[in-house]
């Protein structure tokens, strides 16, 4: 436990250092991609808990990310002005749930406050995860992978085919999410550093909560389910309940990341819901060593940052596919646990 | 009153009748053995008792409650612990952690309090650690506490599995072939251990192929053959039972 505290302290230090360095060398635009990477890292962390520790794969986590992003995007952009006389809108307005603003073209827009959007996106993601999880988590291994993949595809096709979700264009003009006066999630230049720190704080908090969880009664039960589900049951663990709870939790984390990133980017498109995105998250979890918070964190920051900076060019998705293949072949325990000599021997043996 | 009793248990897998109208009872504070040739339905019976399988018909009463068809974790919380014919330890977890898991039903911390590491949770964690350590000491394996359980020698793994079951503080312990794969010395120690377990007040129901172990430790023996109960008696009477001898004839154990 003490070791974990020290690591978390170092993580905070490193995050501050990154900010100081990028700022001092006048590369603050890096902070934008770093902030995005931090949000994607949240998704990966939730998946580390689900896949790495509890042993339940999900190939549909981009779906939950998208549910989060699209919910708040639609709620905070959909113009309610034409319904302003309806009872629902009136009541919502009375309750202070709505805001009136002008968009880029000077139009008046009456829409839900982003607070409502973000909260509802978490509620909806949790509900969907719960309803999907009950039947799907009875499955194991390949079957679970395929069922969650199916879920991801459904979400993708829905956002791609529904006008309110902007079809192929997605939703744009998503307003900043004002958390407190003077502090908002947005992509504005002068908010860049603040946003980097907001995302950093979220990641640190999630890492802290997760390390506590893993080294607890619940964490032991989750790891036991991973290792020998029947024995966990016979020791009194309600495996169905634990699997469902951890599934919902990781879905909510993904949705939170999706909602925040959508406000940060000012929009969301269907590619965020695509199967390739889900595969990418799984590839990163694998590269980080599956049951490793720190491995997952490192790989998520590194690979996402490189990807967002465009280092993988045209082959962005292909790179993540390749990562997955290579990890499975040569380092199923994860890249950070490889010892090079052993790996060479392994390759040698295979050929 | 019997601690565990079953009436008219039937279980079939497709066309195969694994258990046919089996009834029996286990008295508190005793060691009862279940024997029978391979495929007789012994493990199936244990799976019915511990909730892994639901009988096609029949009633199982444990400690005054009907338990047939309940999920295993519920049955575990009522006070039945078990080990498996093929050892089931948790890989990637230490011996201590494996045994700590046995205390799951005696603790309460949920997701939220665990994540926040509330004082109550920390106290509980300390309690679990101490209790588990106590069990390891009782079994004489405290020096293995920090080793990864699935990397131990086979005999040690068996002991760890029993330690995990005992940490559950069960009223009834089901042991499925605990001496399988053990050498003569280890088998003798296992016998002593099972005696100690009974001495501590835990009722034991054991499936075992090693006849000398069975005859030595059990108060009562029940014999299954092709899913049917063919005998249930004191060990000495079982040894003389014609039908039992017939079933075991030609098998190595018949010589005992
Ligand atoms: N889940 C299952 N599905 C189908 N058949 C099963 C299942 N479990 C057990 N059987 C069959 O039921 C019969 C009884 O099996 P069981 O495992 O209970 O025997 P056993 O007495 O424990 O044998 P052993 O001494 O070999 O452990 C066997 O014929 C077995 O093949
Ligand atoms: Mg068996």
Describe this structure as you would to a colleague.
The complex is a heterodimer of chains A (351) and B (256). With 351 residues, chain A is mainly alpha-helical. Chain A is built from 14 helices and 6 strands. In chain A, the strands form 3 sheets. A two-stranded antiparallel sheet of chain A has the order 1-2. A two-stranded antiparallel ribbon of chain A has the order 3-6. The termini of chain A are far apart. In chain A, 48% of the residues are buried. The mean pLDDT of chain A is 93. Chain B is of the alpha/beta class and 256 residues long. Helix content of chain B is 39%, strand content 23%. Chain B has 10 helices and 10 strands. In chain B, strands 6-7-8-3-9-10 form a 6-stranded mixed sheet, with helices on both faces. The two termini of chain B are 33 Å apart. At the A-B interface, α7, α8, α9 and α10 of A face α2, α3, α4 and α5 of B. The structure holds adenosine-5'-triphosphate (ATP) and magnesium ion. The site of magnesium ion has 3 residues of chain B, from α1.
- From the spread of the alpha carbons, the general shape of chain A counts as globular
Percent of residues in helices of chain B comes to 25-40%
- Number of domains in the coordinates of chain A? 1
Low-confidence stretches of chain B: none
Summarize the largest interface: chains and residue counts: A-B, 29 and 38 residues
* SS field, number of helical segments of chain A: 14
List the ligand species.
Answer: adenosine-5'-triphosphate, magnesium ion
Question: What would the principal axes of the Cα set say about the shape of chain B?
Answer: globular
The top-level CATH class of the largest domain in chain B is Alpha Beta
Q: Give the SSE string of chain A.
A: HHHHEEHHEEEHHHHEHHHH
CATH architectural category of the largest domain in chain B: 3-Layer(aba) Sandwich
- Beta-strand portion of chain B reads 15-25%
Quote the average pLDDT of chain B: 94
């Amino acid at each position: 436990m003490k070791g974990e505290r020290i690591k978390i302290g170092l993580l905070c230090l490193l995050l501050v250092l990154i900010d100081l360095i990028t700022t001092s060398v006048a590369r603050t635009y890096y902070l934008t991609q770093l902030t995005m990477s931090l949000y994607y890292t949240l998704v990966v962390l939730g998946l580390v808990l689900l896949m790495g520790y509890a042993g339940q794969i999900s190939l549909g986590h981009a779906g939950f990310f998208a549910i989060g992003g699209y919910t708040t995007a639609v709620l905070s952009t959909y113009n309610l002005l034409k319904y302003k006389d309806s009872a629902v809108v009136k009541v919502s307005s009375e309750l202070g749930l709505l805001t009136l603003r002008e968009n880029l073209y000077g139009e008046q827009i009456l829409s839900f406050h982003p607070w409502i959007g973000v909260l509802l996106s978490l509620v909806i993601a949790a509900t969907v995860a719960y309803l999907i999880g009950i039947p799907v988590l009875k499955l194991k291994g390949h079957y679970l992978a395929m069922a969650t993949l199916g879920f991801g595809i459904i979400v993708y096709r829905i956002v791609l085919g529904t006008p309110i979700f902007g079809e192929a264009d997605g939703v744009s003009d998503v307003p900043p999410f004002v958390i407190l006066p003077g502090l908002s999630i947005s992509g504005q230049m002068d908010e860049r550093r603040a946003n980097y720190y907001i995302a950093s704080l979220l990641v640190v908090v999630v890492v802290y909560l997760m390390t506590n969880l893993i080294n607890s009664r619940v964490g032991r039960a989750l790891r036991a389910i991973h290792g020998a589900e029947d024995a966990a049951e016979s020791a009194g663990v309600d495996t169905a309940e634990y699997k469902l709870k951890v599934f919902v939790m990781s879905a909510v984390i993904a949705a939170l990341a999706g909602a925040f990133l959508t406000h940060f980017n000012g929009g969301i498109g269907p590619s965020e819901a695509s199967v390739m995105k889900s595969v990418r998250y799984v590839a990163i979890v694998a590269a980080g060593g599956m049951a490793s918070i720190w491995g997952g964190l490192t790989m998520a920051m590194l690979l996402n940052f490189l990807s967002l900076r465009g280092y993988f060019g045209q082959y962005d998705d292909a790179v993540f596919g390749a990562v997955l293949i290579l990890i499975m072949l040569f380092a199923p325990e994860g890249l950070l646990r490889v010892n090079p000599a052993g790996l060479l021997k392994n390759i040698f043996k295979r050929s | 009153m019997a601690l565990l009793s079953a009436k008219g248990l039937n279980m079939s897998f497709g066309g195969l009748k694994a258990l046919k109208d089996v009834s029996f009872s286990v008295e508190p504070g005793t060691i009862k053995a279940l024997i029978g040739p391979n495929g007789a339905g012994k493990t199936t019976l244990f799976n019915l008792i511990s909730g892994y399988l639901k009988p096609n018909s029949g009633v199982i009463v444990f400690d005054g409650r009907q338990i047939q068809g309940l999920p295993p974790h519920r049955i575990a919380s009522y006070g039945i612990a078990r080990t498996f014919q093929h050892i089931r330890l948790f890989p990637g977890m230490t011996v201590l952690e494996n045994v700590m898991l046995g205390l799951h039903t005696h603790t309460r911390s949920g997701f939220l309090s665990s994540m926040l590491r509330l004082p109550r949770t920390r106290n509980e964690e300390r309690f679990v650690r101490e209790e588990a350590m106590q069990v390891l000491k009782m079994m004489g394996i405290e020096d293995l506490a920090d080793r990864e359980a699935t990397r131990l020698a086979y005999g040690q793994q068996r002991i760890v599995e029993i330690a995990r079951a005992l940490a559950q503080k069960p009223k009834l312990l089901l042991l499925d072939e605990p001496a399988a794969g053990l050498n003569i010395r280890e088998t003798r120690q296992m016998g002593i251990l099972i005696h100690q377990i009974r001495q501590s007040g835990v009722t034991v129901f054991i499936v075992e192929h090693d006849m000398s172990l069975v005859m030595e430790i059990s108060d009562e023996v029940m014999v299954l053959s092709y899913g049917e109960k063919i005998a249930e008696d004191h060990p000495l009477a079982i040894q003389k039972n014609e039908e039992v001898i017939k079933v075991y004839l030609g098998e190595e154990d018949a010589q005992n």
